[in-house]
Amino acid sequence: MKDESCPRPLSGRVKWFDPAKGFGFVVADEGGPDILLHANVLRNFGQSSVADGAGVEIIVQETPRGVQAVEVVRIKPPETHDAPPMEDVAALDPEVLNALPLEPARVKWFDKAKGFGFANIFGLAEDIFVHIEVVRRSGLADLQPGEAVGLRVVEGRRGKMATQVCSWEMALKGE
Question: DSSP of 84-153, one letter per residue?
């Protein structure tokens, strides 16, 4: 008989995550009840949010309140087949974009409802435009003012813009 109270690895998809509420739920690939994903567990992984539909590898444990994630191992951004490519990035080779260096940056402000915000590369005053679609394609749901992030940046028609956003911890790991 399997001991369900022992931590075990599991793969699934984020059903939803609300940074303001501090939690969300994951649906396991193997089926079963929704799995609680608390903001603190996500923060221990180095992120303050995760996009709905993102693939996750987590360690879960049965608790008196149900199955909960106790550790995030990996996050894979959601599939975005239906999202149109961003105009300034669409013409660029994906390999070229992935080869861009991750720049250390801090979020200046981000408004999810407006769909954009700005960040600054450490040591530079110039604003970097961050679009909500880039945030989602990077596997995040939202950004918080002051949050440390890694950005891949290109020169767009209207100035510098992020093509990828990752948590600072992920940038340090080189992922």
Answer: PPPHHHHTS-HHHHHHSPPEEEEEEEEETTTTEEEEEETT---EEEEEHHHHHHTT-S---TT-EEEEEE
Amino acid at 9: P
pLDDT digits (tens, 9 = 90+) for 6-45: 899 999 999 999 888 999 999 999 999 999 999 999 989 8
Assessment of whether the complete model's pTM goes beyond 0.85 = no
Question: What one-character-per-residue DSSP string does 1-30 give?
Answer: ---TTS-EEEEEEEEEEETTTTEEEEEETT
For residue 99, count CB atoms less than 10 angstroms from its CB and return exposed for 0-12, middle for 13-18, buried for 19 or more.
exposed
Q: Reduced to 3 states, what is the DSSP secondary structure of residue 175?
A: coil
3-state class of 70 per DSSP? strand
One-letter identity of residue 87: E
pLDDT tens string 58-70: 999 999 889 999 9
